[in-house]
Design brief:
The protein has about 160 residues and is of the alpha+beta class. Strand 2 and strand 3 form a beta hairpin. The longest helix is centred in the middle third of the chain and has 15 residues.
Length: about 160
């Protein structure tokens, strides 16, 4: 059974493998991270861990029984009881309810572990799968997302109020 775990330094090789294995799949629905992301992965990864340590963000990985990463689920800009949510799942588990179930679990953790009351997520109009995940996980549309929020694409912000 996959387990949602707070990102740790030991996850770095599995996270890199996940990103590389799914790069083409992800690029079909979200802008590609670019070669620089992979060339400077260790530095970027260490920066994420530092942000997490500072309480600015909370990064999670969905880890399979064999230690591989099946998804990344991130809380960004934790401030005043609110955070933004971002996520991506491996192609091998897409369409099976994994993203929805994990977003729901992260909503519970966001309230219980991080004291958050509200989560927001932006998705492009073209990303039908992400819109479905957010809707099924209890998020509702709250307004337009500017291209600056979505790497040049237009979309919608979704929001969910969390139970304490």
């Amino acid at each position: 059974m996959p387990e949602l775990k707070l990102l740790h330094a030991d996850h770095a090789p599995a996270v890199l493998a996940f990103e590389l294995a799914n790069r083409t799949y992800f690029a079909a629905s979200v802008p590609d991270r670019g070669d620089d992301f992979f060339d400077r992965f260790t530095d970027r990864y260490n920066a994420l861990l530092a942000e997490q340590e500072d309480g600015i963000c909370a990064f999670y990985v969905l880890v399979a029984e064999d230690g591989s990463v099946l998804g990344r689920f991130n809380l960004y800009d934790l401030e005043d009881g609110t955070a933004s949510l971002g996520y991506r799942v491996a192609q091998q588990v897409a369409g099976r309810g994994v993203a929805t179930a994990t977003v729901e679990e992260l909503c519970r953790l966001a309230a219980a572990r991080h004291g958050l009351r509200t989560l927001r997520a932006a998705t492009s109009h073209d990303n039908v799968a992400s819109r479905k995940v957010l809707t099924k996980a209890g998020f509702g549309p709250v307004g337009p997302a500017a291209p600056a929020d979505l790497d040049g694409q237009s979309g919608t912000w979704y929001q969910r109020d969390l139970q304490p």
